[in-house]
Amino acid sequence: MFIPNIMKLTYFVILLLALPVFQGSAQNRSLQFEHLQTADGLSQSNVLCILQDSRGFMWFGTRDGLNKYDGYKFTVYRNDPKNKNSISNNNISDIAESKNGDLWIATRGGGLNRFDRQKDEFTSYKHDPKNARSISNDFLTAVHTDKNGNLCIGTEFTGADMFNLKTGNFYNYKFNNKDSNSISNDIITCIYED
Fold first, then answer.
1. Closest Cα partner for 189 from 163, 159, 162, 164?
2. pTM: predicted TM-score of the whole model, two decimal places
3. Do residues 94 and 81 touch, judged by C-beta distance below 8 A?
């Protein structure tokens, strides 16, 4: 009985010694990175958010505009005060894509923007104090499309907004220290759906 236990122990030790060899050979370490810079057409080297859309385009949000990269060149979208269909602000904090392919862009100071690819133009949604169903704040930090097709929006100081795309209404969720079911803070930095 003593010999089989020694053999089991020997096989176990050999297996433990061989395991790192098998594990190490399975890893591919030949990753290559391409560096895209302002010399390549990027509007600014300080990139705040990145999205690869369903069509394969890369979108980069900076403090100086929204950048679309097709693999060869950049197209930069900036605010043009003379054009109501331009993006509402150059400081881009987050980007999301809805199921129908529209891009939703959160800005710091210009509210929310929807990019219509067919028309190559933006529709902006800004805070309107006269409309209780408007976005709660123009300083946005995050945007996310949920599984029901709604937009979840993080703001800098007014909590979270949900934009119902079917009705066109915004609903605000704020911290309330008297309600244990309220959100825990009015500064939302990111949104993730589990």
1. 159
2. 0.81
3. no
